[in-house]
Amino acid sequence: MAADGAGAAAPIVGTTPDQIAEARDRRRHLLLLAPPAILLVFIFVYPVLGLLGQSVYKDGITLRFYQRLFAEPVYLDVLWLTFRTAATVTLLCLVLGYPLAYVLVGLPARLQRLLLIVVVLPFFVSLIVRTYAWMVLLGRLGLVNELLRKLSLIAEPLPLLYSTTGALIGMTYALLPFMVLTAFSVMKGIDGGLVRAAHSLGAGRWQAFRKIFLPLSMPGIAGGMILVFIMSLGFFITPRLMGGPSDLMIAMLIEHEVELTLNWPFASALAAVLLLVTLVGFFAYSRLVRLERMFEGTR
Q1: What angle do helix axes 264-289 and 250-259 make, rounded to 10 degrees?
Q2: In 3-state terms, what secondary structure has residue 61?
Q3: At residue 4, does pLDDT exceed 80?
Q4: Residue 65's CB: how many other CB atoms inside 10 A?
Q5: Which architecture does CATH list for 79-297?
């Protein structure tokens, strides 16, 4: 009996009451997190595993769908067009969004809040509705062409719709708020006293911006570019409605394989390659720019 009692008490020897309470709280927290964790695994992990499995299995394990993707030039052209379009949209959002975020930071609080509402207002309207609105504006008889003709700037309507230009305009408009909000959240945390100190030491406005403000805002630039680029890769509605026949992106190709040819394994292979390249690019970029600084800057 004595031996049994000593064995039962052994695990508790050297453990303080605080450690026991902490372990109990940890187990309670794990039990509380278990249901949502299982739900997330079922919603996110299981479909991805099913997609990967379907891309390598048809009447047995095979890699012919991946071989087809990389063996035929037409599919490589689609991949190249997708990444080129995503990179172009990212650059446009950076060029337009960074100055806007910089101006917002320097405004009075009341005006700043008002303009931020204007920035996020498009999120309250369906993307397809906004896309159709741009189609009306950019059409051959749309507001933009009519205005340019009345100003005698053009003689014939510009091909702004059903072209690469239309797809870029629509995607940039849809993704620009993400760049603005990401950059703004980091800029908001930059101590303005550092820039004023640089001015007091003789630095000009451009020099203070280049030496102080720009490096401190780099996490916002990196975070916004990653966010816009990744979202651009899988964009479907806007390039489908506003792009031309040659603007075939990978999401549109996946839709074609699923809806028309019913080639689910090949569509799964396309989606798997897109997912893999996106993850590789994300981790490589995060290593280059130290992505964790973005999260530090937004605290």
Answers
A1: 160
A2: strand
A3: no
A4: 22
A5: Orthogonal Bundle (1.10)
